[in-house]
Design goal:
Blueprint lengths: L2 H19 L7 H8 L3 H7 L3 H24 L6 H23 L6 H9 L4 H28 L7 H22 L3 H7 L13
Helix pairs in contact: 1-2, 1-4, 4-5, 4-7, 5-7, 5-9, 6-7, 7-8, 8-9
Length: 201
């Protein structure tokens, strides 16, 4: 690997791990450099500011989540409602492994920064908002297909997808505050019930 690319990637990976385990504000540039084994001068060669690094970390984390979780859970060869159920099962597996590695449920990496920085930094707020908005789309597509198949009653699929993803963020917050990934598994099983009228359940 090109040494410059390797150095930049080490900074990204270190920042991703440190910020996720702690917070954006608590993790400083020097700490990231020490973790990555990179001199501070090299940091500013690749990233003009800590915010620029955080934006790159958010993009990297989004791509990783898309590849390892979203794309697999929402594979088109699965029935649409099974995709949503599979997403929550995969989300539970992810957070269970995080707790095994760290001792803690660390929550949503995007929601964490969003909660911390949305009133402090408009650029970071906008980046998190765009990532979370994009995460709603596979839910909306699965719901639309489920309605067409007769698996769900007619509904506003965009609004329902927003509600489902808001529920997702909520259960990750619960799991983090209780340090219990099992909440994601258990509450995830109830997600689709929220969309079905009581008289049809």
């Amino acid at each position: 690997m090109d040494p410059a690319i390797d150095t930049r990637q080490r900074l990204l990976d270190s920042a991703q791990a440190l910020i996720y385990a702690s917070s954006y504000r608590e993790v400083g540039v020097q700490q990231i450099c020490n973790h990555a084994g990179v001199k501070k001068g090299s940091f500013y060669h690749f990233f003009p500011s800590k915010r620029d690094l955080a934006l790159a970390v958010l993009d990297q984390t989004h791509a990783l989540m898309q590849d390892t979780l979203i794309d697999k859970a929402f594979a088109r060869d699965l029935p649409p409602l099974a995709r949503i159920e599979g997403f929550f099962a995969s989300l539970y597996d992810f957070h269970k492994q995080v707790k095994k590695n760290t001792g803690y449920v660390l929550g949503c990496p995007f929601g964490n920064i969003g909660c911390e920085m949305s009133t402090q930094d408009e650029v970071l707020r906008g980046k998190v908002d765009s990532i979370l908005s994009a995460a709603e789309r596979p839910f909306a597509a699965a719901l639309k297909e489920a309605i067409a198949r007769g698996d769900l009653p007619a509904m506003d699929t965009a609004a329902a997808a927003s509600a489902l993803f808001a529920y997702t963020e909520g259960i990750m917050l619960y799991a983090k505050t209780r340090n219990d990934p099992g909440l994601i598994r258990d509450l995830g099983k109830r997600a689709l019930q929220l969309l079905i009228p009581a008289d049809l359940q």
